[in-house]
Write a structure and sequence with these properties.
GO terms for molecular function: GTP binding; GTPase activity; metal ion binding; ribosome binding. This is GTPase HflX. The chain contains 14 helices and 14 strands. By secondary structure, it is α/β, with parallel strands linked by helices. The radius of gyration is 26 Å and the shape is globular.
């Protein structure tokens, strides 16, 4: 039985594709993922798959080609840019006699290297263990005792496997409890920020778009930033000053195509910063020829985590890499220019073009951010009936009440709160008094 090697940094990459020519951008991103994990790329093979082989994903002919390429290049690791079932991974390792890692395992490995905070390490370990739980199969020699039938050869049977599963589940439960405790603490901190009345802004974008560099430039912080995929994993929050007043700015993990669901679930604390923000700064690598595709993939992930409806300000970063580009602010009603020709970045989407590294356009961004946040506040007087005590309490909790009087019919409140908070309260069963202040909700017959 094949002994799974602990070595493996000289990698052969396999890019499966279904018909037609393989996607060059996907190939380059996969190679960059491998390099980000610390592997050197020996060679890259494409594999057309019209009907996946249930045992090995790729066909027998391609399998022989992969084995020969491994021998020729000296590769001791095989990376597959596709999800592999536990059986497929085991069979490939046995036939190729090398360690095999699929896309999910590769991204988990990168996350394990990048996590710095205690919370981030817990989240990565939890995701790894959940992924590993599906791979406790008889592919390693420490389980060779799983045999029986003859005298003297009867081993513990499934005991070793069952023990591994039990220990793994115990560790998963421990990690989940610790993360739940951290989440409670983070929620309390988030509530304190809400009560402070400061608007919440989150940086989102495709990995390596320059979010952490921009975060440092705006906040004066020293968050880790590097020109590689997934440089930042841990949610970092800072208070920054703007012309309109202080705001809370959060840096988040970068997105990537086909982000494993284990990671989306594990990094809920980071993603919550985006989901509960009043405004998203969608950071885009302006010099990336595939920036429109990247933007679409970020939009898809935002929709998946429930943040698709949060207002966005598009920030095109890295203009220092575009010859002749200058910092500028394109307002939402501006026409389409040569740098933004499509629906994602065209008319109706406010855009700021900057270089966070060189500090170009940061004042334009601060002014645009201030204007957007100032526009999204609601200052009004509302009448609450006596039965709306819960809504009144929530408004006080948000520190949104500037004046209050009471009579026999209820309360009259002078309020000042963000449009996002008003929308959340108005969507509740007792939020009728706020709905006339929000045209999109006032016109909704289901509320």
């Amino acid at each position: 039985m094949f002994e799974r090697s602990r070595k493996g940094e000289h990698a052969l990459l396999i890019q499966p594709h279904a018909g037609g020519a393989p996607d060059e951008a996907e190939l380059e991103e996969f190679a960059e993922l491998a390099r980000s994990a610390g592997a050197s790329v020996a060679t890259l093979l494409t594999a057309r798959i019209d009907k996946p082989n249930p045992a090995t994903l790729i066909g027998s002919g391609k399998l022989e080609e992969v084995k020969a390429a491994c021998e020729a290049s000296g590769a001791d690791l095989v990376l597959v840019n596709h999800h592999l079932s536990p059986g497929q991974e085991r069979n490939l390792e046995k036939l190729l006699e090398r360690r095999v890692v699929d896309r999910t395992g590769l991204i988990l490995d990168i996350f394990a290297q990048r996590a710095r905070s205690a919370e981030g390490k817990l989240q990565v370990e939890l995701a790894q263990l959940k992924h590993m739980a599906t791979r406790l199969v008889r592919g390693w020699t420490h389980l060779e005792r799983q045999r029986g039938g003859s005298i003297g050869l009867r081993g513990p049977g499934e005991t070793q496997l069952e023990t591994d599963r039990r220990l793994l589940q115990k560790r998963v439960d421990q990690l989940q409890k610790r993360l739940d405790k951290v989440e409670v603490q983070r929620t309390q901190m988030r509530r304190a920020r809400v009560r402070s009345e400061m608007p919440r802004v989150a940086l989102v974008g495709y990995t390596n778009a320059g979010k952490s560099t921009l975060f440092n430039a705006l906040s004066g912080a020293d968050a880790y930033a590097a020109d590689k995929l997934f440089a930042t994993l841990d949610p970092t929050v800072r208070r920054i000053g703007l012309p309109s007043g202080p705001v809370v700015l959060a840096d988040t993990v970068g997105f990537v195509r086909d982000l494993p669901h284990e990671l989306v679930a594990a990094f809920r604390a980071t993603l919550t910063e985006a989901r509960e923000a009043d405004l998203l700064l969608h950071v885009i690598d302006a010099a990336d020829p595939l920036r429109e595709e990247r933007m679409g993939q970020v939009e898809a992930v935002l929709g998946e985590i429930g943040a698709g409806d949060i207002p966005q300000l598009l920030v095109f970063n890295k203009i220092d890499r575009i010859e002749g580009a200058v910092a500028r602010h394109d307002r939402a009603d501006a026409g389409t220019g040569p740098d933004a020709p499509d629906a994602l970045s065209g008319p109706g989407r406010e855009r700021v073009w900057i270089s966070a590294r060189d500090g170009l356009g940061l004042d334009l961004l601060r002014n645009a951010l201030s204007a957007r946040l100032a526009q999204r506040r609601i200052v009004a007087d509302i009448d609450l009936p006596s039965a709306a005590g819960r809504l009144r309490a929530r408004l006080h909790q948000l520190d949104a009440v500037r004046g209050e009087s009471q009579d026999e019919s209820g309360w009259r409140l002078s309020i000042d709160l963000s449009e996002a908070d008003a929308a959340r309260l108005a969507a509740q069963p007792d939020g009728a008094a706020l709905r006339p202040l929000l045209p999109e909700l006032a016109a909704d017959p289901t509320l």
